[in-house]
Amino acid sequence: MTLHDAIARPNLRLSPSGLASSSDVIEVMAPAGSGSAEAGSGSSGEVRVFRLDQPIVITIDGPAGTGKSTVAHRLARRLGLDILDTGSMYRTAAAIAIDNTIDLEHHKRLLEIVRAAHMTFNWKAQPPEIMAFGKSYARRIREPDVTAVVSQYAGIRELRDLMVGMQREIAKDHPRIVSEGRDQGSVVFPQAQVKIYLDASADVRARRRCEQLKREQNVETDVNKLRTEIEARDANDKARPFGALTCPKDATVVDTSELDLDQVIDKLYDIVREKARV
Ligand code: DC
Questions:
Q1: CA torsion sign, 113 to 114 to 118 to 124?
Q2: Which of 140, 182, 196, 246 to mutate to test the pocket of ligand 1 (most atoms within 8 A of CB)?
């Protein structure tokens, strides 16, 4: 099976054990002539990348506005891996807190209700859909009231501990995964085979956000105001005592300021191919 086939079958499911059945033990090969010859062996000009029965964790961290989420989804799809959007878990916790009027300082109550919500993902949906209390929170978590407060809830240590534990459990069931967030390479999966830190200048991120608001909501925004907000949020994220945004020492930093989406995906794909080669 070539990589093209893997892309065409992005939902290739693994057995319940999380490992591919023997019939799924397939090598994913870089397409011939894709410029991969420098990377290694293969008499046909193809290079063995990794096998579909082999666990692999790829972490993608970085500040907001670097295109992390889109990039993570696209990369996971291209490689036939599952995707874990950890931001949606913090957003769901914040939505639950808002909807049940639990204030920021009531950590114990928050933890109780978040545990009782049995947060999970519906892996049959594409992308996987975050669920709590047996229903979808996919829409709710994108609403402005959640976005406005989620970073404050994400700063609660007990909540982070719970989420980190849940994320590690998810990876046990989905051992071939791209996990995206702020602390995935630094805290949650320090042993990840591939760690990416996506970055972009505050100017570029502000401009992208401005264009997105115009495109999606027809809202005109002052780019300077957005940049100031982004800089403040970065400072906040990096200064947080728990789960602070940091670039793991062994991460590859990819600055997306001058790259379009396809170029970022190609770059990440090359990094994975190089690092995850077996
Ligand atoms: O990526 P996002 O905007 O959906 O993230 C929502 C919030 O959760 C944001 O304030 C960052 C925070 N977050 C975090 O602290 N740790 C993660 N692993 C993921 C997100």
A1: positive
A2: 182
